[in-house]
Every structure is written in structure tokens, then in C-alpha cells.
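Prompt: I keep going back and forth on a fold encoding question. Comparing notes only helps if you start from a blank page. Show me how you would write down a chain together with its backbone fold. Please set it down just below, with no commentary around it:
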Amino acid sequence: MENLADYQEIVDLIRANGGEAFKRCFQCGLCDAVCPWNRFRAFSMRRIVREAAFGLTDIESEDLWRCTTCGRCPAQCPRDVRQIDSGTALRRIATEYGVFPPTARPVRGVRGSLMAEGNPLNEPRRKRADWAEGLGVPAFAEGMEFLYFPGCYLCYDPRLKKVARATAAVLQAAGVAFGILGERENCCGESIRKAGDEEAFKRLARENIKAFIDHGVRKILVSSPHCYHTFKNEYPEFKAAFEVVHIAQLLPGLLAAGRLAFGDGRARTVAFHDPCYLGRHNGIFAEPRAVLSRLPGIRTVEMAETQADSLCCGGGGGRIWMETPRGERFADLRLTQAIEAGAEVLVTACPYCIANFEDSRLTLGLAEKIEIRDLTELVQEAL
């Protein structure tokens, strides 16, 4: 692109968009060594960072859109290059100039849906609370302990609505005072921000914050690690301070207090998959395992690449909206690892992970070999 050909202009744009840390890279290659993409195809974050340092980045490259922001390379980097920030900076430049290679073109449509309906699925805002029909879930009112924020996929996706309904049933069984905002909710904005659209993220964040403040929200309970991460770590950029709790953090306390009673459980062997934004990004590893240890009939096993080394499902960084060809899907490998560990059920606590695992389960013909469950679904089944 001629209007981006000048070296200094590109460098200035990268710095202005949050990519200053790329200058610290001394090309050790640890990022490439741990990147899950290199199980499936040649990919080099090190090369992208190096080219960016010299203003030589091809912003039309598909490679700029491959990063799932899983967090494995920043965790290993000895120079704090902050590869996620650097990659997001490059995507912001591409977004600013309207440059989307074929893989990333769905992001444009997602933005339109987010701005018009507050969700990435092009579903009507007025139907955001339909998942709760018949459950007696109230609208949030000031004084309730929690605002339950299911997130977009739990509100609209047919498979993931079951997770929202299971969560509501568990909260009701435990006597937790909670409510929802329904159509007053917007997407948290985490994924569109990682896809490079900072303007869309800021608009969504400000509208959510206003809705929270208007309703007197103090504590937010979420099912999505992506919502958890952005409410807890990114919304404070707007001087907004809410207590944010993931359902996997709440459940151990409910169990310890005796607020959930279980019957006889069906004997099953389960493996827990640590979502990137729950585990590696936010350090929540022990809590979901503590819940599984209390469920009747459940025997747990650990897969290869677990906890801080967990393998990404492939859905972060906006990749949930992009098509990944067969043979390059991280979720396919993860299901294989679960089966090899002897698991009959692969359990997780993230809507992106469930969506990708369910898709792989069907495309690989594994429907009879393994089930996919959210943590709250197992808890509800045990009640």
C-alpha cells in the first residue's frame, strides 16, 4: 500500500497503537517454539515482530490474523515483548485502513452487528434474555448480590443457551440473589478489541459501564473468561471498578457452605480443559478442579498440556469469527488429547472452547466417544 510505504510512518503508527514493546525483541525464538500454530503450519511471531521493528510489516498478510492471543508466548518471553499488544497494534492499523485479507473479512460484518445489536451474531437485541424464558430469572435490581452477565454466545447460541440455563438453575438452588439486564447488555468487546477495532471496543465498554452504574451494579458474575478478563483488567481503563467473579470462582464457596445438595452421580471420567483467558491470563486453575472433586461419581484425569501449559482451543483473538481449515484446528488435537487421557467427558468453562470442541467432535466423528460439558452443566446434573 503506497500510503503506508514509508518506514517511519509505519513505525509511528505501531507505537501509537500500543506496539512499543516490539523494540525489545532480541529474536530468541521462544515465542515460535511454544506457539500452537507450529503444530499445524509454519508461523513465526518472531518474524512479525522483527519486521514491525523495521517498519516492513505487510498489513495485508494473513499471518497478522492468526494469533489467538492464547498467552503462551508472552509467558515465555524473557524481554517482555508483549506479543499480544504488538499483534493487536498491527491489526489496529489494518482496521484503520480497511485492509482485511480473506480470512479476516468476517470481522467487518461482526463490527456492524456489534454496533447495531450489541452482539457479534447478528441477533436482535430484544431477544438477548430469551434464554431465561420460563426460569423465573428476574431483572437486576439494586441491592441484589450479583448481576449475572451471560455473554453473547450464552444468550443466543442454541448449544450455549443450555449453559446459561444451567447456571441460573445452580444459582437458584444455592439461593444466590442475582438478576440480568437483558437487552441493556452489550458484548463485553474483548474479542473485537483483540481483532484491532479499538473504536468499537470503547463504544461497547462505555455503554456497558453506563448500564452497570445506572442499575447500581457492584458485583458482576460471568460465564465467559473473555468477559471476566475485559471487565476485570480492561474496563478499569475507563475508571470503572466492579467486583468481577467467574462462575468457576463462585462455585467452590457455595459447595463449602453447603448451599448445594447432590444426589447419586453417574460414574464418569472427566478431564478439565483450562481456557486461556481463565487460566493462563488470570491464574484460575484450582477452583474448577475443586468443584469437580466434589461432584459424585466423577473421576478426574489430566490431559497432556494442562493448566499453565494448556493448549488453546483456537477461538481467541477474534478467531472464533474466522474459518480455520480442517487440519489446522487446535480443538481437533485437544479432543484427541482428552480421549488419550481416558476422558469420557471434556469439561471446560468457556463458550468459545465449547463451541470449538463441539464442532470438532462432530467433524471428527467423535460424538460417541466423548461428551463436551461446561462446568456448571455438570453441577446442575448432580443436583
Residues 2-103 form one domain. Residues 198-214 form the longest helix (17 residues). Residues 1-7 have pLDDT under 50 and may be disordered.
